[in-house]
Structure formats: C-alpha cells, structure tokens
Amino acid sequence: MIDLSHLRGKTIAVLGLGKSGLASVKALVNGGAIVWAWDDNAESRGQLEAFGLAPINLAECDWTEPDMLVISPGIPSTFPTPHPAAEKARRAGKPIICDVELLCTALPDVPSIAITGTNGKSTTTALTAHILSNAGIKTQAGGNLGNPALGFDPAGPDDCFVLELSSYQLELLHDASFDACGLLNITPDHLDRHGGMDGYIGAKRRVFARNKGPKWAVISVDDDPCARMAVELAREGGRRVIEVSVHKPAPHGIYVENGWLIDDLSGAQARIMDLVTVAHMPGVHNWQNIAFAYALCRARGVVASKIIEGIMSFPGLAHRQERLGMADGVTFVNDSKATNAEATAKALSAYRDIYWILGGKPKEGGIDGLQAFYPQIKKAYLIGSAADAFAETLGDDLPWQKCETLDRATAAAFLDAREGIASRAVDMPVVLLSPACASFDQFKSFEARGDAFRDLFNALANTAGQEKP
C-alpha cells in the first residue's frame, strides 16, 4: 500500500466507494488522514464500517473543512451534470483529484509510464508491464486497468509504474507527471462527459501536461486529432516526441512497414520483428499496441532483444480478442471489451469466415462504418436492446438473426458454423463476440458478458471435439 503519511491530520473527502475509492480510503486512513467518505449507494457506504468510519454526506457537509476531494473517475465532476458534492467542492475552491494524483505526488521519484487512447490502452498497458517485468524491472500496472493506483506496493527509483489512464482520470490530474506517455488514438467516445469532441481531445492531451524535461511523448500520427497534437507538442519543445504509425513511415519514430516493426529512433530504420509471426496478437490494431509498447519500453532503457522476448511471451488480456479455443473445428473469440464500432472494426479486420455476435446497449453511431468488413462475415446474430436498430442497419447487406440473448446467439452461431464446415462453404470459421455495444442492458459489465460467453464455449466444447488455445 502507498504511504500517504504526508497527509496526516488533513481532512480528505472521498466520493465513490468502488475499488479505487475504497483503496483511497484505506491508504488515507493508514496515513493518518481524517477521512470523510460517501457513496450514493447505501450498500457501498456500509463498507466504511471496516475502517471505523461513519459515512458523511459530501453533498450536505461543510466544505470549509475538507482540504480536497478525491472523486472516483466514473462520477461526473463537470459534464453532463456535476455531482452536487463536486460542485460544492469547486465553489469552495477545493482541489478535485483522483487516486492517480495521490500516487504520483506521493512517489515522484518512481519512474512512471502513462498510457491512454480511445482503444487499445489496456492491451498496451498490460504488454508494456509484461515486457518490463520480463526484462527484470520490478513493475506494477494499474490505474484504469486492474489494480487501483493506491493499492500498489511501495516502490523505488529502480522500479516502474505503468498506468492506464482514462479521459475521466486525466481530467482529475493537476501535479502528476510521467516519464513517458503514450497516446494511441482518438476517436469519438464519452463525449457527453467532456462537453463534446474538443473537450474529449483536451482531456487526452492532459497526459502530456507535465511531460517535459528528458521525457518521452509517444503519440500516434494515424488519426487527425493525434497528428495535430504531435505537431503542437513538437512546437512546444522540452520533451522528446516519438511518432508512431502503422500505415506510413514515421521518421525518427517507430512504425510498421510491410508487416515489420521498424525502429528509426536513431535514424537507422532497423527492422525489429515480423509482426505477422506474433500470432497471438492478430490485426493492425495489435501492431499499433506492439509499436507503442516497444517505444515505451525503449524509453525505460530496455534493449530490443528483451522487448521481443516479452512480446512473444505475452499471454494477452481477457475479453480483448481472447481466443477461447476450438470446438468441432470452430474457433471462438471473446472480444466483449469491444463496446463501440471502432473497437469492433479491429476484430472484424483480423478474421475471415466470421459468425458475428453483436448487440447490447447501443452507443452513438451504432455500427455505422463497418460495411467494409461485411464480405468477411457469414452471418450476424443480434442480441440486446440494439437488435432492432442493428437489423435495420444491416438490412439486406448481410444475413442476420435476432437471438435476444447471448446463449441463443452462441448456440445459433455454432450450429451455422458447423454446417458451413460440413458443406465446405467455410474452412476456418470463427464465432466472434464483438458486440459494438455497452453491456448494461443484460450484463453488469463487459467482463460479465465475456465470462458468460466463455462459459457457453466451455459447455459446447465439453460435448464436442475441442482444442485449447
């Protein structure tokens, strides 16, 4: 646990008692702070008893007393409507921060890597941490992924923190700085929480706010918002800007050319590895993840040979194009994390002969823009509240079936895929769960949805010929 004894005797308000909020309460109490904590959910408030605390309604308390508000990033502090406690804290002139700010300001001498982007940040974070650990550097990963920031163990200057940061978290950082930052991509997402696209881009840019001195800013130039930001960062100076591309050469950066990862940091255009051979990370989007992880690990001083070792031994992340296995010649891929069309496009681009399960609670734009992948899709299986709208979008362009629930969709897709093999219409069928939707109409999270799909696969595989990944 992170030592927050520098806050001893200060009154710290904590709003939201999920995983990160509870870790904040624990670290603050252990550090000797006076903690005022609240969650709008009564059951969550009950967890405070374990710390000897009584809940204090932060929307009704006297805001002249707390020194700051530590807010869970999922709770709005600005758009679309700020939580009343956040509004009162702001009016009282009190800082509104998240747990990542407390981590970075408590341990400023521990090297840190921050990774953000609309898509791919979890895989890149996990891959970067894996490579560093494989290279012998004591590494802890977390933030928006896995461990909450204040749940980390104490660390020193020879170690490393690798932090996945959401736009929500970035808006709550004031003094935190990072030795290397990676911005993978920007596409429209969470626009209601940021007041529109400009606000969302501005939130992502905050990852570089204090990234100056002998520090690295690693940024994609494959989308317009990032490309413009790369130019702005270079003009500002004070940092090393490393451009990354999977579509074109990036002079003095890292890029992919004809499937090869190219390191041009020293102008040598060194061919590092053939990414086609990284079979457990298929698709151009994963090439981008690999390129970023490579650059960020180079920033930490890891040699290319060790980075390659780490890439090849990386086990991957659950729910992100997770290959579950094969049953009767049909491969099952769990991509439940794909909650928007942009993320689903990356999965559809990686396979052929696809039996596609999609649907849930739709996001703005639905599945518009995926028409280019229709030739690779044999049939679509529609679930959840998005089914009617998606059926209208697909129209006559693609065979589809309304299945309502995931279990029905999985059974139907498996049956059709096996019939495709029997008729020799397909030879490498993939049942792909890549919903392009949030899970909240039928599941509490994308993890729960992916776990259910895994259970369905295991049940089918137990009664069919199976092959483990």
Query: Helix share of residues?
Result: 25-40%
Secondary-structure-based class equals: alpha/beta
Uncertain stretches? none
* Strands side by side in the biggest sheet: 6-7-5-8-9-10-11-12-13
Descriptive report:
It is a single chain. By secondary structure, the chain is α/β, with parallel strands linked by helices. It has three domains: 5-97, NAD(P)-binding Rossmann-like Domain (Rossmann fold), CATH 3.40.50.720; 100-313, Mur-like, catalytic domain (UDP-N-acetylmuramoyl-L-alanine:D-glutamate ligase); 322-461, Mur ligase, C-terminal domain (Protein-Tyrosine Phosphatase, Chain A). The chain contains 15 helices and 22 strands. The chain has helices spanning 19-30, 42-45, 84-91, 99-106, 121-134, 167-170, 191-194, 197-205, 224-236, 284-299, 304-313, 341-348, 387-394, 406-422, 446-462, and strands at residues 11-15, 34-38, 68-71, 96-97, 112-116, 139-143, 160-164, 180-183, 216-220, 240-245, 254-257, 260-263, 270-274, 322-327, 330-334, 354-359, 361-362, 377-383, 400-404, 430-433, 437-438, 466-467. The chain has a nine-stranded mixed beta sheet with strand order 6-7-5-8-9-10-11-12-13, with helices on both faces. Strand 9 (216-220), helix 9 and strand 10 (240-245) form a beta-alpha-beta unit.
